[in-house]
Amino acid sequence: MSRRLISTGSPFEKTAGYSRAVIDGDFAFVAGTTGYDYATMSMPADVTSQSRNCFKTIESALKEGGFEMADIVRATYYLTDARDADAHFAVCGAVLGEIRPAATLLVVSALYKPEMKVEIEVTAKRRT
Q: One of this protein's Pfam families, by short name (predicted)?
């Protein structure tokens, strides 16, 4: 299988020169995904909604590449406020509770836009 690029249509993808996901053989690499609702191009104010939107975008990119959420083997979470960790982890537990990928949480001083509270990236490996 050849390398395949997946786009969600975010204007950031073209501006910054990246793909939402890159499919390479049995692996999918989903780039740092923030909490935008791409249907409305709006960003909710709370970390819970942003985290849910991140996972919706990730699921869509994985599905387009022929993967499922259950294929996720690694996740990295970036939060701008450690006080949001419990709310974010509640969403992670609801979405990934049975999948349980290896995961890391980093608290960072800021993301690209001030309204961004969370960014998520994942790696998936197709189950054969």
A: Ribonuc_L-PSP
pTM here is 0.93
Per the document, the length of the chain is 128
* pLDDT tens-digit series, residues 40-78: 889 999 999 999 999 999 999 999 999 999 999 999 999
Q: Which amino acid is at 89?
A: F
CATH value at residue 37? 3.30.1330.40
Question: Which among 43, 21, 14, 36 is positioned nearest to 121, based on CA atoms?
Answer: 21
